[in-house]
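Q: Could you fold this chain for me?
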Amino acid sequence: MNLRERINLDVKNAMKAKETKKRDALRLLTSAFKQIEVDERKELNDDDIIKIIQKQVKSRNDSIAQYKKAGRDDLVQVEIDEIAFYMPYLPAQLSDDELSSTIKEIITKVGAITMKDMGKVMGIASKELAGKADGKRINECVKKLLG
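A: Sure. Below is the predicted structure, expressed as structure tokens.
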């Protein structure tokens, strides 16, 4: 069963169990999939779906920051709940130690020494760690190790 079929099945199960928050959150995902398919005229594979889910999670995290500034704790909780519904579909995230050791290997491989070499490291790290770590976390780790 591919990722999209799993999400569609979970929407049906949420409907049967009357889990309206989960149903609505997953429906937002499926509509995002359909929108991309219509706009780009292509069939989505699991990698495409993971990228869309990651984009949705990032969007929710940005919204959380804005809502916290505005003191809207009710809306913060809605966004947190949606992220929780999306996370099971994403690959397991690397721990800080795993991320750090992987980036150290990349730094050694490309021969990076100073912050000037950050672009080389980020290019490879972003490709190798796609889906396993957020770009912001990768960036912070590279800065810490090179700086």
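A (continued): Residues 96-146 form a domain with the Arc Repressor Mutant, subunit A fold (CATH 1.10.10.410).
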